[in-house]
Fold this protein.
Amino acid sequence: MKRSIIVLAAVAGALVNSVAHSDVKSGEKLFEECRACHAIERGVNGVGPDLHGVFGRRAGALEDFRYSPALKKSGITWSRQTLDAYVLDPQKAVPANRMPYGGMPEARDRADLLEYLQQEFK
């Protein structure tokens, strides 16, 4: 039990450290890959829904986009933590969703990407 707590604390510390040092410019560059399917402008849906105002929005909530039943039923409200888990591995986070993306394994890259998105919506 004690070892599990130490490992959990180390993982949490690494996540906090990567978030504390996120790089908006790097995140903007990383978003170029996302831009193939997503826009940050409101009402501009592509293969994926627009991400304008994504923080605090329930998954599957945009009326003008056809989401997978799995995402609609997920009960997720998008936050930094839920988006981080989803971008890490979309199929693990929400099995049977329609997002054809293999995931972003590097915590630092995800932190940079999410920092960029948060800056865009301030």
Q: What stands out?
A: The chain has one domain: 2-120. Residues 2-19 have pLDDT under 50 and may be disordered. Residues 89 and 103 are 5 Å apart (CA to CA). The domain at 2-120 is CATH 1.10.760.10 (Cytochrome Bc1 Complex; Chain D, domain 2).
